Amino acid sequence: MKDLEDLKGVGPATAQKLREAGYVSIEMIASSSPYEIAETTGLPIELCKNIVEQAKEEIRIDVISGYEMYKIRQKIGKITTGSKKLDELLGGGIETQAVYEFYGKFSSGKSQIGFQLSVNVQLPEDKGGLNGGVVFIDTESTFRPDRIVEMAKHQNLDPEEVLKNIYVIKPQNSEEQIIAVEKLDYLLKDKNIKLIVIDSLTSHFRADFIGRGSLSDRQQKLNKHIHNLQRYAEKYNIAVYFTNQVMENPGIMYGDATIPIGGNVLAHAATYRVYLRKSKDEKRIARLVDSPNLPEREVIFRITSQGVSD
Ligand code: GTP
Ligand code: MG
After folding, report:
1. For residue 110, how far is its CA from the centre of ligand 2 (angstroms)?
2. Domains by residue range for the chain, with CATH
């Protein structure tokens, strides 16, 4: 979907007026009355009529039959995490056409699971993989090729081949991250990519938008970014795995006050949401907190020298 600035007659100043009045997307403009927009923004009515008309033309309604949908859903593939317990929690592994958020404190295992999936997706189907490649978006500079080598050897895969099938992108800020994802189409098409990892989704956004004034701007950008990921998951039959940082919710006095950052926008971004906690030594606890079809429960897995296991 285009930005407000893509409408004819809408420059930066007009776009700002519209956004400040709450008309943040083409969809919102298309579904509003020009008179209402003129009144709340102070923009001339002729301009408002014109942009509502343009916005309506921009909105495409995609129709597919239930049968087509059924055929598309039949193509869903699964990637093993390396732990049977964790796979079970997720209903048999990480699925394509879905988006997964794993959040938790430092050392809880978010990055390790991202690495393990990047190796496992390259396994043949009878071993829990999809014979596919990976796009790894490394925003925290924590991607470790040597760890991939270790995990690949344990799976009896050729470490060099495994590394060659992982396309690493290192965006330096949120703007670069957004653009990198917008430009992924060609890679996803040409390289048989079956998994996108983003570790982490939020750190650049958190650093680049500081202060309350910029919060709505951040949420808008994040929202669009996530929509792009969801679109890829369906369009190319890909699994999307992203990690997220946490903060303490000051409103909770008792029990675990750890919540993922990103507010409302992220709360609905992922198809499945998993909360990771550190336990003793190698042990980690995974809790499925949000899923369209599976119960909320916890399992224990391990992170060992060989990778993610039971
Ligand atoms: P942050 O990115 O700091 O928020 O943490 P994270 O959740 O991404 O943690 P990560 O996945 O990096 O997990 C780190 C934990 O995995 C460490 O505390 C180690 O216990 C384990 N780990 C990481 N690398 C190795 C390794 O090469 N060998 C072994 N045996 N364990 C490792
Ligand atoms: Mg990490």
Report:
1. 5
2. 4-58 (1.10.150.20), 76-309 (3.40.50.300)
